[in-house]
Each structure stands twice: as C-alpha cells, then as structure tokens.
Amino acid sequence: MPAARAVAAVRHTRATKEPLMESKKVSESRVVMAQLMNPLDANPMGNVHGGVIMRLIDTAAGAAAMRHARKLAVTASIDRMDFHHPIFVGDLVTLKASVNLAGRSSMEVGVRVEAENLVTGEVRHTNSAYLTYVALDSKYRPAAVPTLILENGEDHRRNQQARARRELRLQERKKEAVERRDG
C-alpha cells in the first residue's frame, strides 16, 4: 500500500472506528456523460430548459459520488448555478463530474457543462456547479466514504477551493440557525 494511502487509511480508521477503508484517487470516480439535446428538452425558441441541464448535472454528480463511495449517495445541496451561454436543440451536451472533497460521509462534486454545435464544432462552457452528496448505508444512514487522493495540481486547486466553499456553507448554516433561534 503506498504511503499516502496507508496514512489516510490509518487516520480514517482511528477517527471513525470503522473497518479499514481504501482511499481513492480523484480519477477513479470521474464521470463523463454526453447527451444530444432534443425538442422535448427545449422551449418553443429552441433553448434547452435549465431544469433539464440541472437534472443532467445531478445525474453526473450523483454517479461520481456513488462511484467514489461505492454506496448509495443522495444530494444534500447544490451551490449557486449560473448559465453563461444558452444550450440549443441539436447541441451535444457533455458533463464532466469529479469529486473535489471527501469528508466523513459527504462529498463535494464539481460538474463542468459544455455544449457542442455538431455542425460547426464550436464548444461552449455553459455552466459549472458544485453539489454536496451524502453516502448512505443499507439502513439509509450517513456512511463513511474513502479519503481522496489528489493526483495533480488541478486536483489540489479544486480541493482547496472546495474546502473554502465548505467553510462558507458551514458559516451560512450557523448564521441561519441563529436567525431561526432569534427569529
């Protein structure tokens, strides 16, 4: 077992008192999905509905989370999503999903969406989204997930950004709890 995996496995076992769980590389859970956009996906102007893209994002991200955890995983939250460019009927939409951060039972998955005009070859980055998933055991309770092995500079950058987003989410939750309490 490589040293990084051994250290991560020992740390995980001590922290959770669960059986040894293998760490996983980011590349081991990456998902790439592609789908051709059809008239049923669009409004009368030929623009694909945002909800169709959101469903595809959730599908790709969920597959990456389950591939990482090798357990069922449910969507806990989705961060802000902006649509930078429209997607049209006839475009090939490609979604690239990867786990950016693995906690005890939660994972942040980033998804990049690109639309390709198959006639001209033009590829547009239409949106990106960050989703949080929680792995579940057979009784649908939160379950431990493997630690994440960062393989390159890009993985390290995404992991650091994911940690910052997680801190912001935790601060926002604390603020909301105070507001509900003081209501």
Detailed description of the structure:
The protein is of the alpha+beta class and 183 residues long. The protein has a single domain (3-182), classed as Roll (Thiol Ester Dehydrase, Chain A). Helices cover 35% and strands 30% of the residues. The strands form 2 sheets. It has a 5-stranded antiparallel sheet. A two-stranded parallel ribbon has the order 1-7. A hairpin with a 5-residue loop joins strand 5 (106-117) and strand 6 (123-136). The N and C termini lie far apart (53 Å). Mean pLDDT is 90; it is low at 1-16.
Question: What's the topology here?
Answer:
Layout: H1 3-16, E1 24-25, E2 31-36, H2 50-69, E3 72-78, E4 91-102, E5 106-117, E6 123-136, E7 148-149, H3 153-182
Parallel strand pairs: 1-7
Antiparallel strand pairs: 2-4, 3-6, 4-5, 5-6
Briefly characterize the structure.
The protein has 183 residues and is α+β, with helices and mostly antiparallel strands. 35% of the residues lie in helices and 30% in strands.
Strand content: 25-35%
Large-scale geometry: globular
Mean residue pLDDT? 90
CATH level-four homologous superfamily name: Hotdog Thioesterase
The second-level CATH architecture is Roll
Number of domains: 1
Looking at this protein, list some descriptive labels.
single chain; 183 residues; alpha+beta; Thiol Ester Dehydrase, Chain A; five-stranded antiparallel β-sheet; two-stranded parallel ribbon; 3 helices; 7 strands; 35% helix; disordered N terminus
